[in-house]
Amino acid sequence: MQDKYFPDVVGSDGRDFGKAVCIITGASKGFGRCIAKEIALLLKPGSMFFLVARSGDKLRELQAELAATRAGKAGLITRCVVADLGLKDDVDQVIREIREAASDIDINQLLLINNAASLGDVSRFAKSFTDLHEVNAYMSFNVSSALSLTASVLEVFPRRQDLHRCVVNVSSLCALQPFPSWVLYCTGKAARDMMFKVLAEEEPDLRVLSYAPGPLDTDMLLQARTESGDAGLKKSIAALHSQGEVLTCEESCSKLLKVLLEDKYPSGTHLDYHDV
Amino acid sequence: MQDKYFPDVVGSDGRDFGKAVCIITGASKGFGRCIAKEIALLLKPGSMFFLVARSGDKLRELQAELAATRAGKAGLITRCVVADLGLKDDVDQVIREIREAASDIDINQLLLINNAASLGDVSRFAKSFTDLHEVNAYMSFNVSSALSLTASVLEVFPRRQDLHRCVVNVSSLCALQPFPSWVLYCTGKAARDMMFKVLAEEEPDLRVLSYAPGPLDTDMLLQARTESGDAGLKKSIAALHSQGEVLTCEESCSKLLKVLLEDKYPSGTHLDYHDV
């Protein structure tokens, strides 16, 4: 696996994340799932993985896959936490499970990957979002939960001399540029980028990265290509495919892990796949 | 009043907003109240004002003040709508009142000023916002409602050849820059800027402006100065006061109205008081 995904980018030079607690949201598919598989190869034995998503079946599938890898056989502990992060009880449940299982294990790395996200209904335009509840449900899952979960995780793992703490916000070009018919997604991503910038300002010991992974070959891009209400945008996304500009999750994840392992980015920055 | 507030900036050259429906949120005090008083002087008789805020007493006080002005005597109709925009029923109620009272009156201008906002609890840092409900309540009032209300108002007043439609987002420097201990406020303002950028992309006939009014002498600045958790920021705000850099609402409003009347800004842009 290592040879396939990290030909010469990470891992091959012996760098790793040490003994870590690693929490990945939206881990059941797409980019989150890929991150889980790649990071697993870079953790020391005794590390603990928390994979969070709404779909329990897919999480358990991933858990089984991980158990069969070199990392799994070497003692990586993986916990699946089935949760809808848009709901307070579920966010609290995730934290309870992390606290119970991991708050007293001896680690030198904390990695939180805030990856969970939804595109929202991109078939409609901003002027159609008259229902406050619809907008709130989107914001809860995509914006508020990233703050609550991050704050709670930092509470479970407070600042400590020998603990390297890193929080990743999976961002998007949409955090910087408006795209017609994507009002919820753009708004949510812009909100998140700012939220993590403030966090980085406040916690100088913390490493905070907003990473825009580029256009990835995932269910989300398929949804974007088929459902976007804006005809021009729909065409642009189709063109990405035909011009071979869509990235595999592995390509993008490889760059993310390279950046995290090098650990030289300015905390709070927005970094795009194409900038690395 | 006109002489006092618009020495030579607006109004004096005869420009006005025509016969308008004008909706201002957060109109009971501070910048919103000031905008209401200034715009009243620039509306043609038969125009209709909707003043929205949580405090009915203060709104009615403003209504009485407006009735006593030249504009009030010339036939400006003012409606107070007591509403908490963080709640769906209240947003829906605002729209119902606007629809019933104004959807069939003959106007040539629609002006929606999304001004309502709260600073949030600035005494604490991002890492303390573990409660999803607290974050959601903030986002509902400060982000989601701006979209729902704007979308609903645009539905009541659809595109029409002879109707000039303008939506203002009262923004902040915080939409662009992170400030420690202001995670909710910065996140909300960044989210709103993007939301209105997308709206501007989608509706080319609409005029959309995000206006950052500068540091204003309001209750919000007092709260910021006394309650901010970050000591450095607290000091900076105090310094604004001692260096005379705090603006009156009238100074900032005057620039906003100048920009709106000139109507030359690129739709969707973020404009700061200091840029004008």
TrEMBL record, chains A, B:
| Keyword vocabulary terms for this entry | Cytoplasm, NADP, Oxidoreductase
Q: What is its EC number?
A: 1.1.1.153
Pfam families attached to this UniProt entry: adh_short
Reply yes or no: does the keyword Cytoplasm apply: yes
Query: What SUPFAM superfamilies does the record tag this protein with?
Result: NAD(P)-binding Rossmann-fold domains (SSF51735)
Q: Where in the cell is it found?
A: Cytoplasm
Q: Which InterPro entries match?
A: Biopterin_syn/organic_redct (IPR051721), NAD(P)-bd_dom_sf (IPR036291), SDR_fam (IPR002347), Sepiapterin_red (IPR006393)
Any coiled-coil ranges, and where?
A: none
Gene Ontology MF terms: sepiapterin reductase (NADP+) activity
CDD domains registered for this protein in UniProt: SPR-like_SDR_c (cd05367)
From what superkingdom does this record's organism come? Answer: Eukaryota
- What's one GO-annotated cellular component? cytoplasm
Gene Ontology BP, a term:
tetrahydrobiopterin biosynthetic process
Q: Which family does it belong to?
A: Belongs to the sepiapterin reductase family.
* Complexes and interactors: Homodimer.
Q: What is this protein called?
A: Sepiapterin reductase
Organism equals Alosa alosa
Could you read off the lineage of the organism from its UniProt record? Eukaryota, Metazoa, Chordata, Craniata, Vertebrata
